[in-house]
Please model this.
Amino acid sequence: MKRVWLKCVMGVALLVIMGSMSFSAHAASKVLSNPRQVATNFGYEKQTQWDLVQFGTYNYKPIMWRVLKVNGNDVFLMSEGVMFKSSFYSKSGPTSWEKSGIRSYLNAGMGFLTSFNSTELKYIKKTKVYNSYKTQSGYAAQNSTIDQLYLPSVAEVTNTSFGFKRALDEDVGRCTPAFNNPQESAAWLLRTVGKGQNTTCVVSTQSCGDILFGDMEEEEPNTGYVYAKTYDIRPVLHLNIQKTGICKYVGTVVAKGRKTIVKPVNVISSVALAPKKTAITYCRNNKKKTVTVKWKKISGVKGYQVVYAKNKAFTKAKKTKTVTSRSLALKKLRKGTYYFKVRCYRLYNKKKIYSGYTTVRTVRVKK
Model:
């Protein structure tokens, strides 16, 4: 009997130790954030701030990447600095990313991919890359490609959700020091093809971070290749961060280039920390102009978010309520059909980590 009791005690102690170890591991990890606007030292001016991570090694140094977007386990990264210099280097005739030499080098087993070990390579996602060239009135499509690493496009470096300005002229968020010459700004190559399909688009140095839609190219004699000017290279990639610690968080950078570097810590996906879904148990128009919503309790969460709108896409008259209870009475609603969904959240390093949403419930307010 004593042995049974002793085994039980030891089993409970082991579970407690394992739980504390798991908690400690999470406590030493970092959940990545999307680009955001932060106040400067002047207070009245704001600028974009990006997270920075380390992933891979080039020339015996860890590669630092700027986090452009976080979407669950998928993180879109762009190298913080330039990696090397190269030309676009494509067959003579219409220029395309698909047939470019720089694409081949970035995705070759004996090329830039040697910057990553076998484990890291497994987590670099193969991405369908949409390509285009500049026309007088806009852009026209070229063949899409499947790549692990590629150059950013004009659309991506003018995407405000990635932290850049939409304008094509000066943007300090696109500025970075030149390769082997940190006193100068880099002119770095984009995969978007310029006007006439025989030029390349670049982020230039004319005004820091402005975009040129076609720099001069000339055919390299006796080779049949178009030789673009040599530019700095800043590759991008999509990384699967499902494996905790596949990359390391090392700090932040703001648009004007000032970095805040910290001791590297493991990156953990918010998906790994997300609480499980709740479920709506009651959703009715039980009183005049009132809908009452109830849901299941989920242990360990900080609160619940109730979202409702007047269409199933949750784009019409959408409203959000955050509560700590397990029910909510919404009053003074107008007649009509409403759609409801609920999710819960927990706090991790003061950041809300949400579960998925419940199944959508529909209520018609008649009275």
